[in-house]
Amino acid sequence: MKSATILGARWLLLPSDRGSPGRQAHAMAMLQRSRPWNPPVAGLAMLLGLVTLGVGVACRADTPAPQTVIMDAGRYEPAASTVRVGDAITWINKDLVPHTVTSQAGGFDSGAIAPGASWTFTATRPGEFPYTCTFHPIMQAVLHVR
Hints:
Largest sheet: 4 strands, mixed
CATH superfamily of the largest domain: Cupredoxins -  blue copper proteins
Radius of gyration: 28 Å
């Protein structure tokens, strides 16, 4: 079984990787001509990647996080959701019958959501909002807005 050394590590060429003798010779020649690993350049690339990741996370912290609640089998999943003021939350009805998303304190009311349909609400004020389905009062959940 043939092997090749890449970046200081030895790699075995499996039978499925070998192909025809000409293709195999070409692959070995390409491996031998490859430039050696340059640690300073690799370190700089890793540093830039980490900085970019940090910027991406920082930008994401200010963006509203989408939330989804599934209505199925006569329940809301998850039964408790937490969002920030300005975040949107979407309820998707995957059940066979219509449901509602009705705040018991009067903060929001979806009306009937048909099977396969959805409804989206944007949180405008902080608080704790228990809600239920007016058609099926046993379905209960809570929306926490921070």
